[in-house]
Amino acid sequence: MTEITKDFQGQTVICTFEMTPATAAELMEALREAYTHCIRHQPGFIGAGLHMNDAQTRIATYSKWDKRGDYQAMLRTPEMIKRNRHIATLCRSFEPVMYEVQADF
After folding, report:
1. MF terms per GO, please (predicted)?
2. Does position 8 have pLDDT exceeding 90, yes or no?
């Protein structure tokens, strides 16, 4: 389980995907496969969660990394470049954003 704590010194990444209900299940499966077979095995990966809204029009991923460069290196691997090309065909847009935890409750 990935915990959210203010004292975390690594990199948090929240990525949002916008899609239609027609591609929601396929996109979620592509993301599950990416995390199962590639992302979680990359250096610096700590943990992640995948979330989908009730309308099946948005997916959000939350991941934690030891450091910013670990996340960036994962994106540059040939496998993730290939997977992200496929993922891009299943959604209108996706946006990864790096965050630092400011408070936890």
Report:
1. monooxygenase activity
2. yes
d(CA 50, CA 59): 7
* Residue showing tokens 């009730």: 54
pTM: 0.93
What's the one-letter identity of residue 68? R
Question: Distance of alpha carbon 7 from its chain centroid, rounded?
Answer: 21
Contact assessment for residue 77 and residue 37, using Cβ atoms and an 8 Å cutoff: no
Q: Where would I find the beta strands (DSSP E) of 19-79? A: 45-52, 58-65
pLDDT, tens only, 46-86? 999 999 999 999 999 999 999 999 999 999 999 999 999 99
Pick from 56, 65, 75, 72: nearest CA to 101: 65
Determine contact, residues 16/59, Cβ cutoff 8 Å: yes
